[in-house]
Amino acid sequence: MSQQQPTARSPRRTPSRARRPRALAAAGALIVLPLVTACAGGDDGKGADRGKAAPSVTAAPAAGVVAPAKVEVIAGLTGCKAKIRIDADELRQGLCHTEKADYLITTFPEEKFKETWLEEARVYGGKYLVGTRWVVSVKPALLESFRAKLGGTIRELRGIGPKPSGR
What we know:
The chain is of the alpha+beta class. Helix content is 28%, strand content 19%. The chain has helices spanning 20-39, 71-77, 111-121, 143-150; strands spanning 83-87, 92-97, 102-107, 126-131, 134-137, 153-157. A 6-stranded antiparallel sheet has the order 1-2-3-5-4-6, sandwiched between helices. The longest helix is centred in the first third of the chain and has 20 residues, at 20-39. It is globular and about 40 Å long. It starts with 19 loop residues before the first helix and ends in a 10-residue tail after the last strand.
C-alpha cells in the first residue's frame, strides 16, 4: 500500500473572493489619487515648489474666480470667440476682435513658459494682464475692466532704449 503524503500548504494565503474587490478598489484609488490631485490645480503651499514664491494672482472681483489657463474660456469671459493663431507645445495664442479692441490671449502649459514669454516681451515694453499660466495683451485703457472679469495682475514691462520724453 502506498501512503499519500499530505500536500504542503504555501505560507502565502490567497485572498478570498470577498476581499478581491476591496483590494482592487484600494489599488485603483492609489493609482488614481496622484492623477486627481495633479489635475486639481489648487496650490496649498505644501508641494514640491515650497521654496519658490507663488505668482501673485488676484481673483476677479466681479466673478470671484481666477480665469483658467485656456484661451477659449478666457475669451468667453471677455465676451469674444478667439481665433487661434498659435497652437504649440509651449503656448496657445488666440486673437479676439471686439468693437472696443483687438487683443491677444496667450496661455501656457506651465508657469515657466509664461515667465519666459514675459521676459522676451520686455523688449517691447507695455502693460499686460497676467494670471496663472496666461497673459492678455490689450490696450492699457481696458486693463482694469479685463482684470475685473479675469482676475490676475497688471504688469508693466520696461522696453529697451531711452524713455520717451514727456513733451
